[in-house]
């Protein structure tokens, strides 16, 4: 099975790696928040807008906003994910 990866709580992990514990908020309450972010020719599109929506959604859901949740860290994680998936021959992202 070809492995692909995702960013989960600030870490690059395999999609097949168990990551959600019974204490996870989404597991306990059935709430979650996500954004799909488009990348064109290696350029992350509208990242600041995505982060603004995520921060607003986290506030509405009364989720803790981690200190490391900022443009620089998220940008670096997405670029790391792009490098990882490209090295696996993945050129399209769902």
Structural overview:
With 94 residues, the protein is an alpha+beta fold. Helices cover 38% and strands 13% of the residues. The protein has helices at 25-29, 47-60, 71-87, and strands at residues 5-8, 11-14, 39-40, 43-44. The strands form 2 sheets. It has a two-stranded antiparallel sheet with strand order 1-2. The protein has a two-stranded antiparallel ribbon with strand order 3-4. The model has no long low-confidence stretch (mean pLDDT 85).
List keywords for this structure.
94 residues; alpha+beta; D-amino Acid Aminotransferase, Chain A, domain 1; 3 helices
Write a compact overview of the structure shown.
The model has no long low-confidence stretch (mean pLDDT 85). Helix content is 38%, strand content 13%.
